[in-house]
Amino acid sequence: MNLLKLSMITTAILGLSGCMLEGDDGQQGPAGSAGSDGLNSLTVQSDLPKGDNNCPNSGVKLQSGIDGNGNGSLEEDEVTDTSYVCAPGVSGLSASELLTSVNNDWFSQASSQIQLNKQNWLDATGSRESQVTTEKLTNQQNLQKTLTSLKGKAKNVILFVGDGMGISTVTAARILEGQLQGKAGEEHALSFDQFPFAGLAKTYNTDAQTPDSAGTMTAMMSGVKTDVGVIGVDEDIARGDCSSAAGNELVTALELAEIAGKSTGVISTARITHATPAATYAKSADRNWEDISDMPAEAVDGGCKDIAEQLIHFENNLKARFDGIDIDGIEVTMGGGRRHFLPKDMAFNSPDAVSAVEGDRTDNRNLTAEWQSLYPQGRYVYDKTGFDGIDTETTERVLALFNESHMQYEADRGNDIAGEPSLSEMTEKAIKILDNNNKGYFLMIESGRIDHAHHAGNAYNALTDTIELAKAVRVADELSNDEDTLIIVTADHGHVFTIAGYPKRGNPILGKVVNIGQDSPAMAADDLPYTTLGYTNGLGYRNLGAETDADQGYAYPVDAGRKDLTDIDTTTPGYHQEALIPLSSETHSGEDVGIYAKGPGAHLVNGTNEQNVIYHILDLTADLNGQASNALK
């Protein structure tokens, strides 16, 4: 078969419709090839519609052959040649069509974004536009040259971790924040949505398809993936075996920054001894060893130290590992978890203690007092009043423990007895203290309670804490300079949290699904309404109304499965979404999570990455390893 992909030959040919051509001029032709029998050669033309396999944009099918039976028409078995004349595809727009596009808001916004993206790349690579495709990264030599030029370009590094902040959480929080501002919501952008570079991280641990925070944060802080439940050590250990940790300790980005002479800080709305913040400074064969009372006797006898003690004596521990270093310890520590630093004796209770005996330590040590003894010029604070009184220009260092356990959810913060600062307020205070060091700083900021709200099955608090994280990112961005500060926003893992159904644009993200063109909730196959947000597993339905503490959901038995939500306001803070599979707590997910970046080296964040690559981006752009090595010489 002859397939001719030609442009339109003439409008006359395309204008013919299913006529029979006899010879080249439409008249009866000379005798056919058989000659003696007087048979005619015939050519038949038929129009082809758009979408035809041979001519996608329409055209003409031409068939020729010998009229063997002399009936004046060409049968299928008489066809000896088939060809096509195809209409060309649309390769341009008419003036009117073009104006229709360029005057469209979506078109113009996307066009502007492309220009911004291009400029971001040019700025990041230091290229002229003509160089981007012809000179940059075309071979190994140019690649190495580019990476070398990035080394040490970031004076400061800020790493934000939204614990449990999977892609669906970011999307839902974006919509909620937009709706709280009176928008439809979907078109809104969180602060870090607007960062110029983004990619994905694969979150699995070395022994687990679905990860935990200890293994994932260790990967981000050390550049080495490891097992579930262990902190600051590689996979060549046995969880819970103190003796197996020796020799398998990893060096973290925060430790390298300390050795390099930078100021350092750790902030979390969770307990400061919890897995994510602990992975910046501790080495532990079990993430649960937050204080000595959590440790088995053999681990204590084996010389392993609890995580709270490792934080307080971080400076001395690091000096013991690296001879001859000159460091001054972590300058800013803010979070919850006071109970792990105080003796199990009510005499040491803080004014806002919730438990009859606040402290958990069974070794009778008051680690807050030990810290104050080590750093007489430092400020230990436990409430909002003490926090507000910190002078960022004169304060050398801060240890702030605002709660017996985790800090409050952002939505519940007003109910704290002694008052707590928000994540954005802690971020601002920390940066203003740390930037007093002309060598720069390393700061890790965790929004830890996104994770806890998801575990409790309460989307309201998870999204509200995500919005507060975005506010903290905006504060950090405003207080820093893109020329010398790398900011990365990411998550350790996601959750089994979904956005589903077919709700119309602007439908309340916490509400029930209302379909396009409708005003009443859509009904599922069981004739019951359902919400846009839900969980695959967990505690299930609770209707706690105005309750802003998601953890109150644990006071009720598991109640998974479908419920009649007809008369339930699902947008209240205390509503807990339905769950399919009954569990005592909702679980993490194994999906990839987002990485968002701006500042020096931000363009290295792209594509899908192993999670430990984040450390290597931090290390390269701040030259943490190089500067630390020079300090050790």
Automatic annotation (TrEMBL):
SUPFAM superfamilies documented for this protein: Alkaline phosphatase-like
CDD domains recorded: ALP
Pfam families: Alk_phosphatase (PF00245), DUF7151 (PF23657)
Residues covered by the DUF7151 domain: 40-86
Keywords: Phosphoprotein
Disordered, as annotated region: 25-53
UniProt xrefs under InterPro entries: Alkaline_phosphatase (IPR001952), Alkaline_phosphatase_core_sf (IPR017850), DUF7151 (IPR055575)
PANTHER family associated with the record: ALKALINE PHOSPHATASE
Family: Belongs to the alkaline phosphatase family.
Full protein name: DUF7151 domain-containing protein
Species assigned in the record: Lacimicrobium alkaliphilum
